[in-house]
Amino acid sequence: MMRRVSRLLALLCLSACAATSFAQTYPSKPIRFVVPFPAGGDLDPVARGLGDHFQATWGQPYVVENRPGANAMIGTEFVAKSAPDGYTLLICSPGAMTINPHLYAKVPYTVGKDILPVSLVAWTPMVLVVSKKLPVNNYAEFVTFLRANPGKVSFASAGRGNVTHLAAELFMREAKLSAVHVPYKGAQAVIADLLGAHIEMYFNPLPSARGYVTQNLNRVTPIAVTSRARAPILPDVPTLDELGLKGFDVVSWYGLCAPGGTPKEIVNRLSAEVARALATGDLAERLRSFGTTPRANTPEQFAEEIRRESAMWGRIIQDNAIKAD
């Protein structure tokens, strides 16, 4: 028995030493950032910004690989099944991490087990954008019009169960309003119809809203932002909290995740390097210019934030009987 115990302790010691040695030599080859959406979307600049910093710091090249489909599940599953060695990483966002597990009966990964949170990178508010088709110029007029026309105004989303859909449902519940949901297959089609006055309202993440909103004030009106603080890029647009929905604080976010089983030493090293990237160099300013607020945290803090948000979206999905397309 003593011999067996000694052997087990020796194996555990060897395993720990091997993991530590591996962490000390990491990275020694190119790093792949998987973006689970088509090229050109909001997540690409985050991937390239981190890649540029890691390459400058560690001297290893990187590649950004877009693997879209199934509401981000194809790319996320690919990372979940990749070798847990820190060389295949996921640029994660709410859909894959906090929404899909409640929206679909079967999801091909388990958050926290197959996909590990590493660090938040940035967050961004959503903008309530209203078409000039509606005879309103501000939030008070908007609410008055909706209450006078229950169920006659339509709001768009980039897809059923998308964060643009759930944010609107939460807003309708908190503001005690009624509107008709019109799901689209992607944000670009929504924006085209919003500018064309075919749809009345849309909760759009700031990075994709900032350009067309400021350039088309004759077609659309930014009514409010969903974060507790105003957005520096739209300083004159009030928050929903200011406008009377006390405590309303909904944001979209971008983070870094790794395959389940990635050594803790690697996860911690990646997390620490994200924090350093946002504290030094030009990455933080690049993210701000894009309409996001840079913020890093520890793997444990990021995991807790994901758990809290997952519970919130789970309640909205259940209460509104939302089903995936």
Structural overview:
It is a single chain. With 325 residues, this protein is of the alpha/beta class. The chain has two domains: 30-123 and 251-319, D-Maltodextrin-Binding Protein, domain 2, CATH 3.40.190.150; 125-225, Periplasmic binding protein-like II (D-Maltodextrin-Binding Protein, domain 2). The protein is 44% helix and 19% strand. The chain contains eleven helices and ten strands. Strands 1, 2, 3, 4, 5, 6, 7, 8, 9 and 10 form a ten-stranded mixed sheet that branches. It is globular and about 75 Å long. It starts with a helix and ends in a 6-residue tail after the last helix. Residues 14-19 have low confidence and may be disordered.
Short description:
This protein is an alpha/beta fold and 325 residues long. The chain is 44% helix and 19% strand.
Q: What is the succession of H and E elements?
A: HEHEHEHEHEHEHEHEEHHEH
Q: What would you report as the Rg, rounded to the nearest angstrom? A: 22 Å
- Biggest sheet, open or closed, and with what strands and sense? 10 strands, mixed
Strand content: 15-25%
Q: Which regions contain 5 or more consecutive residues with pLDDT less than 50?
A: 14-19
Number of helices: 11
Mean pLDDT: 92
| Beta-strand segment tally | 10
- Gap between N and C termini, in Å? 58 Å
CATH homologous superfamily classification of the largest domain: Bordetella uptake gene, domain 1
Shape: globular
- Number of spatially distinct domains: 2
Determine the fraction of residues in helical runs and give it as a percent range. 40-55%
Identify the CATH class of the largest domain.
Answer: Alpha Beta
CATH topology of the largest domain, which one? D-Maltodextrin-Binding Protein, domain 2
CATH architecture of the largest domain: 3-Layer(aba) Sandwich
> What would you call the structural class?
alpha/beta
